[in-house]
Design brief:
about 15% strand, 7-stranded mixed sheet, two-stranded antiparallel ribbon, globular, alpha/beta
């Protein structure tokens, strides 16, 4: 009886039991509620195939789709002091950072890399909203300065993808100091005559909007991105009035002259290459790898039969 209970019955149950489906195979769109298969969503760069809603995308996935062949080289960023204010709320600040590192797989809230887009050399920096809401701390300030210095050194344009909830409160005034530091970094690019292009993604708010996110030579935004300093709810409670529909969204700001373009994520690669080459006076980008032309044998003139033979 023990043999039947302990071996035969579990074996039969395992053969006929329903296998559990992993929960991460499907993602629900926040805008339209459509359930999206994970492979289909990744192939579409985390953009809903039903309504076009642009979801969060990590910097590495963005770089893989942006650079030629997905190949890029990371730019080293100096590490700041770990916990300068010894900040503690419900958790210690270092514990929050380690939890964010484990969840996102990144060291901090900004990744800097260099590579080519349609054979156009560029330096690119991207904020990771999945790392403590992309908050601007000392590391982000160091990353922007490192990106600008590398761009000046290599004489390459700088492209920055912003996504942040604002300054990082755990670093207090040291976080706010990154606003003028980033502004000086942008000024370094202008003195060197190099383009600085900003792509604002959802959301870009607070001190980030008040500094480097709105200092670009060209301002591009993803569709539906929230771009503001103070959020709509705060403004409504302050002025006690209902705001217009779509207020502070990318399309609203484009209509009111705050942006140059609103471009879907899938078109960033082509558009950024075109803009960079235009600003730097280069020829149009090559859109594909063309095969080398086959060698052509020279055509020799036919001999004249009336000519005397050479001695």
């Amino acid at each position: 009886m023990n043999w039947i209970s302990n071996y035969v019955r579990p074996k039969i149950n395992s053969l006929f039991s329903r296998r559990e489906v992993p929960e991460n195979l499907w993602t629900k769109c926040d805008e339209c509620g459509t359930m999206l298969f994970h492979r289909e969503l990744k192939d579409n760069l985390n953009v809903c195939t039903n309504c076009g809603h642009h979801m969060h995308i990590p910097p590495r996935d963005r770089f893989a789709a942006l650079f030629d062949g997905g190949v890029f080289t990371e730019v080293k960023v100096p590490a700041p002091v770990e916990d300068p204010l010894k900040f503690r709320d419900q958790k210690r600040y270092p514990d929050r950072v380690r939890a964010a590192q484990k969840q996102s797989g990144e060291h901090e809230a900004m990744l800097v890399a260099e590579g080519e887009i349609h054979r156009t050399p560029v330096v690119v920096a991207a904020q990771d909203f999945g790392f403590m809401a992309g908050s601007m701390g000392m590391y982000v300030g160091n990353a922007i300065i490192a990106a600008a210095e590398r761009a000046v050194q290599a004489k390459r344009p700088l492209i920055l993808f912003s996504a942040a909830g604002g300054a990082r409160m755990q670093e207090g005034i040291l976080s706010l100091m990154q606003m003028p530091r980033a502004t000086i970094a942008v000024e370094m690019l202008r003195e060197a005559g190099l383009p600085y292009i900003v792509v604002l993604t959802h959301p870009t708010t607070g001190g980030v909007t008040a500094s480097y996110a709105m200092l670009g030579d060209i301002q591009i935004a993803e569709p539906g991105a929230l771009i503001c300093f103070a959020g709509p709810r705060v403004i409504e409670q302050t002025i006690r009035e209902t705001l217009p529909e779509g207020f502070q969204r990318a399309e609203y700001l484009l209509d009111h002259g705050m942006l140059d373009r609103v471009t879907p994520r899938g078109q960033h690669r082509d558009e950024l290459a075109t803009i960079v080459r235009m600003l730097t006076g280069q020829t149009p980008a090559v859109r594909g790898d063309l095969p080398a032309p086959a060698p052509v044998e020279p055509i020799l003139p036919e001999p004249d039969p009336r000519a005397e033979p050479a001695e």
